[in-house]
Amino acid sequence: MSDQPPIIIAGTESKTFARKIAQELGLGLGRVEVATFSDSETHVLLHADVKNRDVYIVQATSAPTNENIMQLLLMAHAARSGKAKKITAVMPFFGYRRQEKQTVSGEAVSFQLIAKLMKAAGISRVLTIDLHKHRSAKYFKEAGIISKELRAFPVIIDHLRKKKLDHFVVLAPDKGSIPESKRYADGLGVPLIKVYKHRSIRKRDEVKFDEFEGEVKGRNVLIIDDEVNTAGTLMGVVDILKEKKAHNVYFACTHGVLSGPALSRLAKSNIRQVILMDTIYLPLENRIQKIKILSVAPLFAEQIGKWAHWKKN
């Protein structure tokens, strides 16, 4: 065990999440001031003494994405200027997660650029959870950053097992989600149903369904995905399930992006429960009755404790 505890710094987007991590480790938060000038520039002032210390900056780069990314970079730069021994970006949500490959000529691979900017700011390690595509972690390696991608699977599966599911099936909403959905189906000992779709290049949130495999009539259906954004895709799947006489529909995902009309769609939908992780802070006024939030902060705290050789007294 280290004599020097790690220093945990919270960005404005993840203060609640950072406090949960710090509490798990028996620590407080390092003091930092973040302000926005009248011309929209971000200003960071790090008060914590980080010299020769391991620093963990907790910041989800969810909306406003660009502001939160810039804040993370400035906090890392301030820590490097303060001669921190090692700087780790703890990112419960990674912005630009879906821009991990070029789909048309001339398109920027934004994920790759963000990784390079993080390295330039002084970040040498990243801790995140459930990237949109697991292969995206290659961009961290290319930039010279050590990365660890956690999985929300144990938290979600534990919650679902406690519900004592009956007559359930797990539905994979697209081809890419089949492996993860199968993992959940196997973990719960229930059948897997598959849906195939394609996404418009011009309208990234517009989805068409091509094929639906499996029997859902009279069954309770659990839909698993890595995130819910506008909930447009989800509503399309739910409508099909209801047409096919499915009973109750449950949805579980890691990241509640919930942009645009998502909350309104979920509130009006036939979904019985929406299970989200706390990777993106959801204000109390937006927590509609059918939303259940589980915490993955203990998973992050456990990994930080291992890296920092630190354990709560």
TrEMBL record:
Q: Which GO terms describe its biological process?
A: 5-phosphoribose 1-diphosphate biosynthetic process; purine nucleotide biosynthetic process
UniProt EC number: 2.7.6.1
State the source organism's domain of life: Bacteria
Task: Please name the top-level EC class of this enzyme.
Answer: transferase
Q: Locate the Ribose-phosphate pyrophosphokinase N-terminal domain: which residues? A: 8-122
Q: Which reaction does it catalyse?
A: D-ribose 5-phosphate + ATP = 5-phospho-alpha-D-ribose 1-diphosphate + AMP + H(+)
Q: What is this protein called?
A: ribose-phosphate diphosphokinase
The UniProt GO MF terms for this protein read:
ATP binding; kinase activity; magnesium ion binding; ribose phosphate diphosphokinase activity
- What's a single GO CC term here? ribose phosphate diphosphokinase complex
Pfam families for the chain: Pribosyl_synth, Pribosyltran_N
